[in-house]
Amino acid sequence: MHADAQALVDRLRLRPHPEGGFYREVFRSAQRVSTPRGERSALTLIHYLLPAGSFSALHRVLADEVWTHAGGDPLDVHLLDGTGAHEYFRLGVGAATEAVVPAGTWQAARPVGTRYALATCAVAPGFDFSDFELADGRLLVGSNPELAGLIRGLLRPAG
Question: Is the pTM higher than 0.85?
Fold first, then answer.
């Protein structure tokens, strides 16, 4: 890991995330809202860092998420919706500053550079790990064979 990335992991007190990269929750709203899955905080916010050469594995969250570039190298955020449509946003200097991921959309991210990409991710209703799912590559590739290379490149090994 680049020294600049390690310094931010240490300074921001980030820890490993199951999808890859490092994170720390920095805000959880005291306001509560009802969802079909139970009560949730109205909003949560994390710092999220991806070192160069790493990626955020394909996953989905059952709430809307906004990625905002906060520093370092650019970041490509890939989206795959229920119809199999793929799009991506490049976030960072000279590109968009934020990307919106609708609830239930498969998403993944990869830094573009040699150091790291730092983002903040806001989720509403607030993030809960019971609303988080890492992708099953066999199912995604089976329903999106034309995207097999992209999907396989954004998966964590099983088990």
Answer: yes
